[in-house]
Amino acid sequence: MNYKTRLLLDVGFKFLFKATGILVLALLGGILAMLVYNSFSFFLDVRPLDFITGIEWNPTGNSPKYGMLPLILSTTLVTFGAMLIAIPIGIGTAAFIAEYANHRLKNILKPAIEMMAAIPSVVIGFLGIVVVSPGIAHVAGLSNGLNALNGAILLAVMALPTIITVAEDAIHAVPKAYKEASYGVGATKWQTLCKVVLPAAAPGIIAAVMLGVGRAIGETMTVLMATGNASLLPTGMFDSVKTMTATIAIEMGEVPYQTTHYYALYAIATVLFIMTLVANMLGEYFINRFRKYHAA
Predict the structure, then answer these.
(1) What is the pTM of this model?
(2) 1 pLDDT band (50/70/90 cuts)?
(3) Within its chain, how far is the Cα of 80 from the centroid?
(4) For residue 8, how far is the Cα from the chain centroid?
(5) Rounded to 5 degrees, what are φ and ψ at 188?
(6) Euclidean distance between the first and final Cα of the chain, in Å?
Protein backbone atom coordinates (compact mmCIF):
# COMPACT_ATOMS: atom_id res chain seq x y z
CA MET A 1 0.00 0.00 0.00
CA ASN A 2 1.59 3.25 -1.11
CA TYR A 3 1.68 6.55 0.75
CA LYS A 4 -1.14 8.14 -1.27
CA THR A 5 -3.49 5.23 -0.58
CA ARG A 6 -2.75 5.31 3.15
CA LEU A 7 -3.35 9.05 3.21
CA LEU A 8 -6.71 8.64 1.48
CA LEU A 9 -7.70 5.91 3.91
CA ASP A 10 -6.71 8.08 6.89
CA VAL A 11 -8.73 11.00 5.56
CA GLY A 12 -11.68 8.72 4.77
CA PHE A 13 -11.77 7.10 8.21
CA LYS A 14 -11.33 10.47 9.90
CA PHE A 15 -14.33 11.78 7.97
CA LEU A 16 -16.35 8.64 8.76
CA PHE A 17 -15.69 8.83 12.51
CA LYS A 18 -16.44 12.56 12.56
CA ALA A 19 -19.68 12.00 10.64
CA THR A 20 -20.67 9.25 13.09
CA GLY A 21 -20.09 11.55 16.05
CA ILE A 22 -22.09 14.34 14.42
CA LEU A 23 -24.90 11.86 13.65
CA VAL A 24 -25.10 10.84 17.31
CA LEU A 25 -25.33 14.48 18.38
CA ALA A 26 -27.94 15.12 15.69
CA LEU A 27 -30.05 12.20 16.90
CA LEU A 28 -29.81 13.43 20.49
CA GLY A 29 -30.73 16.95 19.42
CA GLY A 30 -33.59 15.62 17.29
CA ILE A 31 -35.06 13.68 20.22
CA LEU A 32 -34.86 16.75 22.45
CA ALA A 33 -36.39 18.96 19.73
CA MET A 34 -39.29 16.51 19.26
CA LEU A 35 -39.97 16.43 23.00
CA VAL A 36 -39.81 20.21 23.37
CA TYR A 37 -42.01 20.77 20.30
CA ASN A 38 -44.76 18.50 21.60
CA SER A 39 -44.39 19.85 25.13
CA PHE A 40 -45.00 23.35 23.80
CA SER A 41 -48.47 22.24 22.67
CA PHE A 42 -49.19 21.16 26.26
CA PHE A 43 -47.97 24.43 27.77
CA LEU A 44 -50.44 26.33 25.59
CA ASP A 45 -53.15 24.87 27.86
CA VAL A 46 -51.30 24.48 31.17
CA ARG A 47 -48.85 26.93 32.69
CA PRO A 48 -45.34 25.45 33.23
CA LEU A 49 -45.32 26.57 36.88
CA ASP A 50 -48.65 24.85 37.54
CA PHE A 51 -47.37 21.73 35.84
CA ILE A 52 -44.16 21.55 37.88
CA THR A 53 -45.64 22.56 41.26
CA GLY A 54 -49.10 20.97 41.00
CA ILE A 55 -49.72 18.33 43.67
CA GLU A 56 -52.27 16.20 41.82
CA TRP A 57 -51.85 14.06 38.72
CA ASN A 58 -55.27 13.00 37.46
CA PRO A 59 -55.51 13.66 33.71
CA THR A 60 -58.58 11.43 33.23
CA GLY A 61 -60.82 12.98 35.90
CA ASN A 62 -63.87 15.15 35.29
CA SER A 63 -61.62 18.12 36.01
CA PRO A 64 -58.20 16.97 34.72
CA LYS A 65 -55.21 17.77 36.92
CA TYR A 66 -51.70 17.89 35.49
CA GLY A 67 -49.58 18.38 38.58
CA MET A 68 -46.19 16.74 38.12
CA LEU A 69 -44.81 17.30 41.63
CA PRO A 70 -45.87 13.85 42.96
CA LEU A 71 -44.12 12.20 40.02
CA ILE A 72 -40.93 14.23 40.51
CA LEU A 73 -40.85 13.55 44.26
CA SER A 74 -41.58 9.85 43.71
CA THR A 75 -38.77 9.55 41.18
CA THR A 76 -36.39 11.45 43.46
CA LEU A 77 -37.37 9.37 46.50
CA VAL A 78 -36.83 6.03 44.75
CA THR A 79 -33.55 7.18 43.16
CA PHE A 80 -32.25 8.61 46.44
CA GLY A 81 -33.13 5.41 48.28
CA ALA A 82 -31.42 3.35 45.60
CA MET A 83 -28.23 5.42 45.90
CA LEU A 84 -28.23 5.10 49.70
CA ILE A 85 -28.06 1.35 49.18
CA ALA A 86 -25.89 1.17 46.06
CA ILE A 87 -23.16 3.72 46.88
CA PRO A 88 -21.66 2.08 50.00
CA ILE A 89 -22.03 -1.44 48.58
CA GLY A 90 -20.67 -0.39 45.18
CA ILE A 91 -17.66 1.55 46.47
CA GLY A 92 -16.91 -1.12 49.05
CA THR A 93 -17.02 -3.85 46.43
CA ALA A 94 -14.87 -1.81 44.07
CA ALA A 95 -12.29 -1.20 46.81
CA PHE A 96 -12.24 -4.89 47.68
CA ILE A 97 -11.72 -5.94 44.06
CA ALA A 98 -9.02 -3.35 43.45
CA GLU A 99 -7.08 -3.66 46.71
CA TYR A 100 -7.82 -6.93 48.49
CA ALA A 101 -9.01 -9.61 46.06
CA ASN A 102 -6.41 -11.95 44.60
CA HIS A 103 -6.06 -12.43 40.86
CA ARG A 104 -8.22 -15.56 40.77
CA LEU A 105 -11.05 -13.97 42.75
CA LYS A 106 -10.94 -10.86 40.54
CA ASN A 107 -11.38 -13.04 37.47
CA ILE A 108 -14.55 -14.44 39.03
CA LEU A 109 -16.03 -11.27 40.52
CA LYS A 110 -15.57 -8.87 37.60
CA PRO A 111 -17.35 -11.01 34.96
CA ALA A 112 -20.10 -11.83 37.47
CA ILE A 113 -20.70 -8.14 38.17
CA GLU A 114 -20.69 -7.32 34.47
CA MET A 115 -23.22 -10.11 33.89
CA MET A 116 -25.56 -8.41 36.38
CA ALA A 117 -25.90 -5.54 33.90
CA ALA A 118 -27.20 -8.02 31.31
CA ILE A 119 -30.17 -9.14 33.42
CA PRO A 120 -33.37 -7.74 31.79
CA SER A 121 -35.18 -5.15 33.88
CA VAL A 122 -38.43 -7.13 33.62
CA VAL A 123 -36.69 -10.04 35.37
CA ILE A 124 -35.50 -7.73 38.16
CA GLY A 125 -39.05 -6.38 38.46
CA PHE A 126 -40.50 -9.90 38.61
CA LEU A 127 -38.08 -10.86 41.39
CA GLY A 128 -39.10 -7.70 43.21
CA ILE A 129 -42.76 -8.74 43.08
CA VAL A 130 -42.31 -12.37 44.12
CA VAL A 131 -39.30 -12.12 46.47
CA VAL A 132 -38.55 -8.61 47.75
CA SER A 133 -42.11 -7.30 48.03
CA PRO A 134 -43.44 -10.12 50.28
CA GLY A 135 -40.34 -9.74 52.47
CA ILE A 136 -40.91 -6.00 52.93
CA ALA A 137 -44.61 -6.55 53.63
CA HIS A 138 -43.82 -9.21 56.26
CA VAL A 139 -41.12 -7.19 58.04
CA ALA A 140 -43.02 -3.88 58.01
CA GLY A 141 -46.48 -5.35 58.64
CA LEU A 142 -47.94 -4.02 55.39
CA SER A 143 -50.64 -5.46 53.19
CA ASN A 144 -48.19 -5.49 50.28
CA GLY A 145 -44.62 -4.45 49.58
CA LEU A 146 -45.18 -2.59 46.33
CA ASN A 147 -43.72 0.70 47.48
CA ALA A 148 -40.78 3.09 47.13
CA LEU A 149 -38.49 0.89 49.23
CA ASN A 150 -39.07 -2.08 46.95
CA GLY A 151 -38.25 0.04 43.90
CA ALA A 152 -35.16 1.50 45.60
CA ILE A 153 -33.76 -1.94 46.40
CA LEU A 154 -34.26 -3.14 42.84
CA LEU A 155 -32.79 0.03 41.30
CA ALA A 156 -29.79 -0.30 43.62
CA VAL A 157 -29.18 -3.79 42.25
CA MET A 158 -29.41 -2.45 38.69
CA ALA A 159 -27.08 0.49 39.38
CA LEU A 160 -24.41 -1.60 41.13
CA PRO A 161 -22.62 -2.89 37.98
CA THR A 162 -22.10 0.66 36.70
CA ILE A 163 -20.94 2.01 40.06
CA ILE A 164 -18.63 -0.93 40.79
CA THR A 165 -17.03 -1.03 37.35
CA VAL A 166 -16.28 2.71 37.09
CA ALA A 167 -15.23 3.05 40.74
CA GLU A 168 -12.93 0.01 40.51
CA ASP A 169 -11.21 1.48 37.46
CA ALA A 170 -10.73 4.76 39.34
CA ILE A 171 -9.26 3.05 42.41
CA HIS A 172 -7.04 0.80 40.32
CA ALA A 173 -5.69 3.83 38.43
CA VAL A 174 -4.34 5.56 41.56
CA PRO A 175 -0.51 5.65 41.15
CA LYS A 176 1.36 3.04 43.16
CA ALA A 177 3.70 5.76 44.39
CA TYR A 178 0.88 7.15 46.53
CA LYS A 179 0.37 3.84 48.29
CA GLU A 180 4.10 3.18 48.67
CA ALA A 181 4.57 6.59 50.26
CA SER A 182 1.74 5.86 52.68
CA TYR A 183 3.19 2.47 53.60
CA GLY A 184 6.59 4.12 53.98
CA VAL A 185 5.37 6.32 56.85
CA GLY A 186 3.86 3.32 58.65
CA ALA A 187 0.22 3.42 57.52
CA THR A 188 -1.73 0.18 57.36
CA LYS A 189 -3.44 -1.03 54.20
CA TRP A 190 -6.82 0.06 55.56
CA GLN A 191 -5.53 3.52 56.48
CA THR A 192 -3.93 3.85 53.06
CA LEU A 193 -7.18 2.89 51.37
CA CYS A 194 -9.34 5.31 53.37
CA LYS A 195 -6.99 8.31 53.58
CA VAL A 196 -4.95 8.06 50.37
CA VAL A 197 -6.46 5.82 47.69
CA LEU A 198 -10.14 6.76 47.96
CA PRO A 199 -9.50 10.54 48.13
CA ALA A 200 -7.16 10.29 45.13
CA ALA A 201 -9.81 8.33 43.22
CA ALA A 202 -12.64 10.68 44.30
CA PRO A 203 -13.36 12.21 40.84
CA GLY A 204 -13.74 8.76 39.31
CA ILE A 205 -15.88 7.55 42.20
CA ILE A 206 -18.14 10.60 41.92
CA ALA A 207 -18.45 9.88 38.20
CA ALA A 208 -19.49 6.31 39.04
CA VAL A 209 -22.15 7.60 41.40
CA MET A 210 -23.53 10.10 38.88
CA LEU A 211 -23.71 7.45 36.17
CA GLY A 212 -25.51 5.21 38.65
CA VAL A 213 -27.99 8.01 39.34
CA GLY A 214 -28.60 8.40 35.61
CA ARG A 215 -29.17 4.66 35.33
CA ALA A 216 -31.69 4.71 38.18
CA ILE A 217 -33.64 7.78 37.04
CA GLY A 218 -34.19 6.40 33.55
CA GLU A 219 -35.31 2.90 34.54
CA THR A 220 -38.90 2.07 33.55
CA MET A 221 -40.03 -1.54 33.74
CA THR A 222 -38.65 -2.31 37.19
CA VAL A 223 -40.31 0.64 38.93
CA LEU A 224 -43.51 0.11 36.94
CA MET A 225 -43.78 -3.41 38.32
CA ALA A 226 -42.52 -2.85 41.86
CA THR A 227 -43.62 0.52 43.26
CA GLY A 228 -47.42 0.35 43.30
CA ASN A 229 -48.02 3.26 40.88
CA ALA A 230 -50.01 5.57 43.16
CA SER A 231 -50.00 9.18 41.90
CA LEU A 232 -49.84 10.72 45.38
CA LEU A 233 -47.34 12.85 47.23
CA PRO A 234 -45.04 10.34 48.96
CA THR A 235 -44.45 10.68 52.69
CA GLY A 236 -42.00 7.83 53.19
CA MET A 237 -40.31 4.79 51.71
CA PHE A 238 -43.28 2.54 52.53
CA ASP A 239 -45.68 4.55 50.36
CA SER A 240 -46.72 3.37 46.92
CA VAL A 241 -45.33 5.78 44.35
CA LYS A 242 -45.52 6.46 40.63
CA THR A 243 -42.36 7.58 38.87
CA MET A 244 -42.13 9.65 35.71
CA THR A 245 -40.96 6.72 33.60
CA ALA A 246 -43.77 4.48 34.86
CA THR A 247 -46.34 7.20 34.15
CA ILE A 248 -45.24 7.50 30.53
CA ALA A 249 -45.15 3.72 30.06
CA ILE A 250 -48.59 3.14 31.59
CA GLU A 251 -50.50 6.00 30.00
CA MET A 252 -48.96 6.48 26.56
CA GLY A 253 -50.56 3.32 25.13
CA GLU A 254 -54.11 4.34 26.05
CA VAL A 255 -54.13 8.14 25.83
CA PRO A 256 -56.13 9.71 22.93
CA TYR A 257 -53.87 11.11 20.24
CA GLN A 258 -53.10 14.87 20.23
CA THR A 259 -55.00 15.64 23.42
CA THR A 260 -53.75 17.69 26.37
CA HIS A 261 -53.08 14.45 28.22
CA TYR A 262 -51.07 13.15 25.26
CA TYR A 263 -48.89 16.25 25.16
CA ALA A 264 -48.53 16.19 28.96
CA LEU A 265 -46.66 12.90 28.65
CA TYR A 266 -44.24 14.58 26.27
CA ALA A 267 -43.73 17.31 28.86
CA ILE A 268 -42.92 14.65 31.47
CA ALA A 269 -40.51 13.03 29.02
CA THR A 270 -38.80 16.39 28.47
CA VAL A 271 -38.25 16.90 32.20
CA LEU A 272 -37.02 13.32 32.54
CA PHE A 273 -34.69 13.75 29.55
CA ILE A 274 -33.16 16.86 31.08
CA MET A 275 -32.72 15.22 34.51
CA THR A 276 -31.03 12.16 33.00
CA LEU A 277 -28.89 14.30 30.70
CA VAL A 278 -27.68 16.45 33.60
CA ALA A 279 -26.80 13.36 35.67
CA ASN A 280 -24.85 11.79 32.81
CA MET A 281 -23.10 15.06 31.90
CA LEU A 282 -21.98 15.45 35.51
CA GLY A 283 -20.68 11.89 35.40
CA GLU A 284 -18.76 12.58 32.20
CA TYR A 285 -17.39 15.81 33.69
CA PHE A 286 -15.94 14.00 36.68
CA ILE A 287 -14.59 11.20 34.48
CA ASN A 288 -12.74 13.78 32.36
CA ARG A 289 -11.40 15.45 35.50
CA PHE A 290 -10.24 12.04 36.72
CA ARG A 291 -8.44 11.33 33.43
CA LYS A 292 -6.76 14.75 33.33
CA TYR A 293 -5.72 14.39 36.98
CA HIS A 294 -3.91 11.13 36.32
CA ALA A 295 -2.48 12.26 33.01
CA ALA A 296 -0.81 15.26 34.67
Answers:
(1) 0.85
(2) low
(3) 11
(4) 42
(5) -80, 170
(6) 38
